[in-house]
UniProtKB/TrEMBL annotation:
GO terms for molecular function: ATP binding; ATP hydrolysis activity. Residues 36-172 form the ATPase dynein-related AAA domain. Coiled coil: none annotated. It comes from Candidatus Methanolliviera hydrocarbonicum. It comes from the Archaea. Gene3D superfamilies: P-loop containing nucleotide triphosphate hydrolases. This is MoxR family ATPase.
């Protein structure tokens, strides 16, 4: 995916851990060291690196890695029609997103890098170490000095991810952790993601307390991310705009619907019950 599609105003809360992480990204890129932002789902990794890339005002390319992604998508391939006419020449080679970023001195965002299969991981070793890539029949393409590679990843123990090979891990030089933010920051994040609607403080507090309680509940196996709070808040704000009021039952219904999607319990019935208990427990402190 080409980054131009993302060149719109991003609403990013850049304080606390996000400010520190942003500064570390700047330091790493300025010193030519490859950074990787790691953390659980929905903690703001993708948004932060996208914001950084946009702020540099360089071309940027964003690729979401998974097992099916092939090196040709990153490196490029020869167009058979042109090869037939003119043979293997520069003109017949279409650079992939990584090589484009290298040639243009752009930023390459490798989202979810630890979902990459072995072939893809291997194809990154040369660009990261040598800042160049040898294309058979054409020669070595060297990266512009402004080229930078930035990765994000979920911690490896989460399902659906691979371990990094030793060689790739060694080339990722600056590890930047993000965790769930503190209360104040998370509330700000929820607020900016609901704009232009404004949400009353006491309602926001309730939503945060529900999310926090769900996050801490041992019987819910999946992490409850910042997305959950944003979703509940958006539903509540919409309801308010339509009906002028929101009672406890509405809030519980919205929260249940959102948390059912983000959580994993032992069986559906017991999941619903656990979630209801969590929500009611969290709201008790508000009466
Ligand atoms: N600092 C922030 N400022 C504003 N919004 C944020 C911030 N952090 C997270 N969000 C919001 O939280 C949601 C999740 O963010 P993002 O997609 O960046 O998370 P992620 O860590 O990349 O998740 P995943 O591991 O699932 O890819 C988005 O809706 C985003 O707008
Ligand atoms: Mg992401």
């Amino acid at each position: 995916m080409n980054g131009d599609e993302h060149r719109r105003d991003l609403k990013v809360v850049l304080e606390g851990q996000y400010k520190l992480a942003y500064e570390l990204l700047e330091d790493a890129v300025s010193t030519g060291l490859t950074p990787i932002v790691i953390g659980p789902p929905g903690v703001g990794k993708s948004l932060l690196v996208r914001k950084f890339a946009i702020d540099t005002d360089r071309p940027f390319y964003e690729v979401f890695f998974d097992e099916l992604l092939r090196p040709a998508y990153l490196i490029g391939s020869f167009d058979p029609a042109i090869v037939l006419q003119k043979g293997y020449c520069q003109e017949a080679f279409e650079s992939g997103h990584l090589l484009q970023a290298m040639e243009e001195g752009g930023i390459f965002l490798a989202q979810e890098l630890n979902r990459a299969g072995e072939f893809c991981q291997n194809s990154l070793l040369e660009p990261l170490e040598e800042r160049s890539y040898y294309v058979p029949k054409i020669g070595r393409l060297r990266a512009d000095e402004k080229f930078a590679f930035i990765a994000t990843a979920n911690p490896a123990e989460l399902a659906g991810t691979h371990q990094f090979s030793e060689a790739l891990r060694d080339r990722l030089r600056v590890w930047i952790p993000l965790i769930y933010p503190d209360r104040e920051t998370e509330l700000k994040i929820i607020r900016v993601n609901c704009e232009p609607a404004t949400i009353a403080e006491d309602l926001l507090d309730k939503i945060y307390d529900i999310v926090k309680a769900a996050r801490e509940e041992q019987d819910l196996e999946m992490a409850v991310s910042i997305r959950a709070g944003i979703s509940i808040a958006r539903l509540a704000a919409y309801h308010l705009s339509q009906h002028g009021e929101l009672d406890g039952k509405d809030l519980i219904n919205y929260a249940r619907s959102v948390l059912l999607g983000t959580s994993k319990g032992r069986g559906w019935i017991s999941l619903e019950k656990t979630i209801d208990d969590v929500i009611r427990g969290a709201l008790k402190t508000h009466v």
